[in-house]
Amino acid sequence: MKIESGIKQFKKPLYLESGRILEPYQIAYSTYGELNDDLSNAILITHALTGSHKPVKEDGCKIFNNGWWDSLIGDGKPIDTRKYFVIATNVIGSIFGSTSPTSPIDQYSHNRLYRYKFPVVTIKDMVKAQHTFLQSIGIRKVKAIIGGSMGGMQSLQFGVDYPHFAEHIIAMAATSATSPWTIAFNKITQEAIKRDPKFNNGEYNIHDIRENGLDGLAIGRMAGHISFLSHSSMYKKFGRNYLKDDGFYDINGRFQVDSYLEYNGDKFSKLFDPLSYLYLTKAINIFDLSNGYNSLANALEKFEAKLTLISYTGDLLFLPEESQEIYNTMRSIGKNNQVEYYEIESDYGHDAFLVEFEKFDWIIKKVLE
Known about the structure:
Strand content: 15-25%
CATH superfamily of the largest domain: Alpha/Beta hydrolase fold, catalytic domain
Number of domains: 2
Radius of gyration: 20 Å
Structural class: alpha/beta
CATH topology of the largest domain: Rossmann fold
Largest sheet: 8 strands, mixed
Helix content: 25-40%
Strand order of the largest sheet: 1-4-8-5-9-10-11-12
CATH architecture of the largest domain: 3-Layer(aba) Sandwich
Oligomer: single chain
Order of helices and strands: EEEEEEEEHEHEHHHHHHHEHEHH
Number of helices: 12
Number of strands: 12
């Protein structure tokens, strides 16, 4: 499989939904496979909150979550790189190479970083930047756009904003508008970050955070992990097992689930950026596909692509009913032949789209074939 990665610079301004401008900016990307002669085999992969432009595992790559969809993408896999030219970009606002809050504020001084001067970016802005990038490398149309969670939001937004750009859109574990329950979970992380003294109102020491982490981000990530899993999956994974080396009646003694949350929270806080987390969760919170339209139905009337929706029964973050609403709305406006809905039986929780591939990879393969 041919793999190429790079960073593409853009000097023309990116006009954002908020009315602000991002100029200049850059997009980090990876491609897998080869583009055919008539440019008809391109597939865009859109990533979730802590994902990146590295869905395929690459030796030596130190990016967090490197290879997050390695079971789905590659030679002979459901998204077969012998047939398709797979493109993945890092969204603006993320820490893994695209312009973000810790990027230089201008091209003349690398010591002046955006930090809180970075504009709020939306899912719509992320999609606009990706579309600009794809146009710049000669891609005028893709066979499919595939993503889960925040990536699913992007794929849906593509269908509304660029109706003729994709033949198929596959949105997994997604929603048309973020619910108050999910916004509340994100609020816990946001407040934990901002109230940590080391955060210093966004003026934290970046090198210190990368070496020692940020307690606020670690605590917030613990809350996030709870929302990503489910009651059933946590019971199967940990039960009520206690750490053998910890005293049961010691106030600091821990269950296995305690240790799991501590380990993952601490590790994550050294690998991700607190400002990026604030900006990306803000984008998720304000996402509403009907923004600028009278209703969700009016927005979905723009859809020309064939839409495949996949939800998971154990997902507490984006409930199956939220995908069902999109499906029912598409049917109510006469797009019955454009939409399919699959509800996957899963006790794993929201992260099922990153774990239980065997339960849904056949759907992706079916759509692409």
